[in-house]
Every structure is written in structure tokens, then in C-alpha cells.
Amino acid sequence: xxxxxxxxxxxxxxxxxxxxxxxxxxxxxxxxxxxxxxxxxxxxxxxxxxxxxxxxxxxxxxxxxxxxxxxxxxxxxxxxxxxxxxxxxxxxxxxxxxxxxxxxxxxxxxxxxxxxxxxxxxxxxxxxxxxxxxxxxxxxxxxxxxxxxxxxxxxxxxxxxxxxxxxxxxxxxxxxxxxxxxxxxxxxxxxxxxxxxxxxxxxxxxxxxxxxxxxxxxxxxxxxxxxxxxxxxxxxxxxxxxxxxxxxxxxxxxxxxxxxxxxxxxxxxxxxxxxxxxxxxxxxxxxxxxxxxxxxxxxxxxxxxxxxxxxxxxxxxxxx
Length: 320
What we know:
This protein is of the alpha/beta class. The protein has helices at 2-14, 20-23, 62-68, 94-103, 118-124, 128-141, 150-157, 191-200, 253-277, 284-292, 297-302; strands spanning 26-37, 40-47, 53-59, 71-72, 75-78, 84-88, 110-114, 166-171, 175-182, 187-189, 207-213, 216-232, 235-245, 304-313. Strands 1, 2, 3, 4, 5, 6, 7, 8, 9 and 10 form a 10-stranded mixed β-sheet that branches. A 4-stranded mixed β-sheet has the order 11-12-13-14. It starts with a helix and ends in a 7-residue tail after the last strand.
């Protein structure tokens, strides 16, 4: 029995369990935001055991704002339940990433970028579930955003071939996805190209889309998607396979043509964008490297592109 109790205690510690009596002396943060405005850093902290109250700390450096935020409302700030970090695009740089890497070495939280004023954003959306529910819903419906952890974002920023990118959000009446932001080049790609990038990188396998045909609108589901990329004889071959269905029509022939054309156009636009503007967020150039064993950007720019998309018409079970 004694061994079982000890084992349970160890498990609770590793799972991040915090005893109730300790919570009384802690300000537990689940969502954090940071921006740089008017030559000042602003740190926003959502404290879940203080009725999700948001605290704002300002300073001249990252070190200063986090030092000032060590105690909030006479309680020690506790980050081990941190799940979401919102970074204004004006603070996404090597200095910030290295600071966060050193400050939160054992935490694997989600990261999102925004061009919006964080003071306004945190007045309306400041809880972790605000963002996690939004990402889940948006991924299932439009596939224009996915979960990206700080670990993944940091790793991609250290990649010699690929450029780091971060999901970009905004808000009006509700949170919205704006696509992808490539920080070191200050390039933004819209929702369609974000979805295309996730698709050819096998980060998504389903999405819904509206198709207009003969003055009618149809809801279309594209699912069980798989992407394959190959490079041979100066040809980059991109093959997409999946299934298609629509609750609004039993005749998918024309709808499928439109969906395939849109996917084909978006893939070509993404690749031509990469080649024209000298960035790489897709995996395409990696397949050239696998064949040539060298990072040859000229080869990528001059290669021919062959896109082959096959969608099988099959009824989707949305309720199983």
C-alpha cells in the first residue's frame, strides 16, 4: 500500500498536479501574450485561479516584464499550466524565441501570431479554451489553422532549409484565421495558401468548402486526404488522393471538377510564391535534397511542376 501511495504522488507531480493549499499562494497562468509597442514590452497574463483575470505588466525589456511579473496580486506567478502563448508579430524574432526557450524549458505550449493590439484582444479572448476551441473548430471546418507548439516553431526556426512559420489570427466579432505568418521575411499567406501548405505537408486530412455552381451554393467535404511528393528528371510530382462528398448534391461530377481545379491552382500558387520570393515553408525542396543531396534553390526554381489530384466520390459518415 505504501508503494502505491508513493507511486500516485510521483504520477501527480509529473502530470503537473498542484495541491489545493499551494494554489492559494500561486497565480496560475494558462494564457500569455506579449507585444512591443511605443518602445515598451507589454506582457498579458490570464490567471485562472483569479476568475480568469487578466494582468498587464509593462517594461523596457523581456527580462524586466517577466521579473516584474514574478508576483501577481501578491501571489507567485506559476507557469506550469501554461497552454497558449500569443505573440504579436512585432516581437517574433530570435531574441524572443531564445528568451522563451530559456524561460520555459519544460513547457510545450501552443503558439499563435497576431497583428492585432493585444490589449483589445485580451479584453475579449484571454482563456486557453477560447483559442484551443477556436483552433479545433477552424481546423475541422476549413483546415486553415493547425496546432503549432513552441517546440515545433523553434525547431523550424533553426532549420537551414525551411523557414519558420506561425499560424496568424485576428478578431472582429469572433476569432478568425488569417493564414500563416513567416516572421523573418515578414510575409503573410492567406487562409487558402495556409490550407494548401498544411495539405502538401500532410498536416491535415480533411476540410470543408463552399462551391458555387449555376447560381447555387454547395457544402462540400473533402476527406481522407494524403499527399505524396517526388522529384525525378527535373520534375516535381505532387500527388493528392482523397474522397469527396456533399450533403447538398448526389451528383458530384461538376463539384469535384471545381474542387480539384481550386486545389491545383492553390498548390501551383504556393510553389510559385516560394520560388519567386525565396522562402520555403512546404516540404517540396526537401524532396529535391533527398535526390541530389544538396540544397539547390536554382534547381527548385527551374523544375517543372506536375500536380495530380484524385478524389473518389464516397459518402462520408459524419455521425459515426
